[in-house]
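re: that chain from earlier
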Amino acid sequence: MFQKFDESLFLILNGNHQAILDYVMLLASNLFSFVPVFIVCIYISIKYFRKQDDHYYTFINITLLIVILVMQYFLCRYLLHDVFKDLLGRERPCANPNISSYIRLLGSECKTGIHSYFGYKTALMFCLSSFLFFTIKEGFKGFKFILILWSLLVGYSRIYVGDHYPLDVIISAATGILVGYLISMFYRYLKNDLLVI
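^ sequence. v structure.
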């Protein structure tokens, strides 16, 4: 039942293409678009922590923040991706004989044997967003709003380009939010209790 609903919703969302959106969706779906987002997030975080702390140790804090962000990438890209793929992996929509002839793939060919679940790009973006939300408690509302919009766009782009089912994107986003929250707690522990910086 869920599979049929997921397939139907995928076909609706994947089938609504407009030429002007193709470029935006390819950009949002590209892993290299995460680099400027990470750089802006580091900049905003540094600005926030400097404002909060009179004794801000710039080099140590920047290093810690970069280590945490890189840890998020490896967690979502490799660890979670491999664990979920082995547990719940299913073929990409283009390899599904029930719907493959109705799918519009954008920017890639159908890769059989590659799993639709887990969507690490979606998880990574939501992980980063939730990490910043739980870490930066006040201010930067405009930035947070843009980050939410970008996360949603990245999630939708994965369906739009034909790589993931909607349910895969939703579960990946929820997992990313949870991991981002746990990493923010770990970051606060390192910063305030263990390293006291």
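Residues 74 and 92 are 22 Å apart (CA to CA).
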